[in-house]
């Protein structure tokens, strides 16, 4: 950390890694939000930069496709004064047979202090945390968790609604294959929100209610209850075929349209973690309506990721 900036007083934090929301306490969630609030100006103003992580090197280790998360983390690291390395498995030693762990260890030997990891296999960031001495940030592991997405969704709700406790949040779509759904559920239920998951029966796990949520297969029935509706993407790349009859049928039953918006509370907040598929999960009119905070989520994601990187790489452990 540069001597020109002192540590933020944002609450308790002793974790070197961010592997999932499930392991975080309410106090730790509040610490992340407090730090995120500090970094909001830097997320909106390209001229506003910090030197908290000057001298640190952070590697983006992405084994799955990503636009928002990869770009957001890279920009967050640079806004904090860190250097960044972008890794892609295509054309790397992994394609020549080198193991994932050995590849990470070779990158670590270049003087890397932190890894941002996305992988299709659940638990991969946890394995790296056991094997490497650097900080590990989970940027999505299979259908398990996507912690910074859950954090930025909750942070957006907090900014727009001024609270989370007592709100009813509907998570609509492909719950079975969505790591975003799980991170949202862990975050929101810890903070006192009521969560309803909604989608086709084939896309809602039978055991999901064990996480403290309610499930429904009728979107029109739950919409009047919801203060927030978070529209999740259909995870076509993770599905086997035949989970619903057709895209048209899915949209008819679960697509957010302006007619459905009329059934919602006037101040309903619309979220979507992206990438959004207009005409499948929601219409263009809904995506762009005044109640939509989709682009605010992207902006808030930068602040949240700055907060997470700052906390993890500055932690006294």
Provide a concise account of the structure shown:
With 317 residues, the chain is an alpha/beta fold. Helix content is 37%, strand content 14%.
Known CATH architecture of the largest domain: 3-Layer(aba) Sandwich
Shape: globular
Domain module tally? 2
Low-pLDDT parts are none
Gyration radius, to the nearest Å?
A: 19 Å
Please describe the topology of this protein.
Blueprint: H1 26-44, E1 57-62, H2 68-79, E2 83-87, H3 100-108, E3 114-119, H4 124-131, E4 135-141, H5 147-161, E5 168-172, H6 179-190, E6 194-198, E7 214-216, H7 219-222, E8 228-231, H8 247-254, H9 258-261, E9 269-271, H10 284-287, H11 294-314
Parallel strand pairs: 1-2, 1-3, 3-4, 5-6, 5-8, 6-7, 8-9
Helix pairs in contact: 1-11, 2-11, 5-6, 5-11
Structure description:
The chain is α/β, with parallel strands linked by helices and 317 residues long. 37% of the residues lie in helices and 14% in strands. Helix 2 packs across helix 11 (294-314), helix 5 packs across helix 6 (179-190) and helix 5 crosses helix 11 (294-314). The longest helix is centred in the last third of the chain and has 21 residues, at 294-314. It is globular and about 55 Å long.
Key descriptive features of the protein:
317 residues; alpha/beta; 2 domains; five-stranded parallel beta sheet; 11 helices
């Amino acid at each position: 950390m540069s001597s020109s900036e002192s540590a933020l007083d944002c609450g308790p934090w002793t974790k070197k890694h961010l592997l999932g929301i499930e392991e975080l306490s309410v106090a730790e969630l509040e610490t992340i939000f407090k730090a995120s609030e500090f970094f909001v100006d830097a997320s909106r103003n390209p001229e506003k930069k910090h030197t908290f992580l000057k001298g640190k090197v952070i590697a983006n280790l992405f084994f799955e496709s990503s636009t928002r998360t990869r770009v957001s983390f890279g920009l967050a690291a640079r806004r904090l004064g860190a250097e960044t390395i972008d890794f892609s498995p295509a054309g790397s030693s992994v394609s020549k047979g080198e193991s994932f762990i050995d590849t990470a260890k070779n990158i670590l030997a270049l003087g890397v202090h932190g890894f941002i990891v996305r992988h299709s296999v659940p638990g991969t960031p946890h394995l790296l945390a056991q094997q490497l001495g650097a900080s590990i940030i989970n940027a999505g592991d299979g259908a398990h968790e996507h912690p910074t997405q859950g954090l930025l969704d909750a942070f957006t709700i907090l900014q727009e609604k001024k609270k989370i406790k007592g709100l009813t949040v509907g998570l609509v779509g492909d719950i079975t294959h969505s790591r975003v759904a799980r991170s949202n559920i862990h975050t929101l239920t810890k903070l006192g929100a009521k969560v309803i998951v909604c989608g086709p029966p084939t896309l809602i796990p039978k055991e999901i209610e064990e996480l403290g949520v309610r499930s429904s297969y009728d979107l029109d029935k739950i919409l009047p209850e919801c203060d927030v509706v978070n529209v999740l993407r259909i995870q076509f790349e993770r599905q086997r075929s035949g989970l619903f009859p057709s895209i048209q049928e899915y949209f008819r039953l679960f697509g957010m349209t302006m007619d459905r918006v009329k059934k919602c509370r006037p101040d309903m907040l619309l979220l979507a973690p992206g990438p959004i598929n207009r005409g499948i999960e929601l219409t263009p009119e809904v995506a762009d309506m005044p109640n939509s905070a989709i682009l605010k989520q992207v902006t808030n994601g930068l602040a949240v990721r700055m907060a997470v990187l700052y906390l993890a790489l500055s932690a006294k452990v």
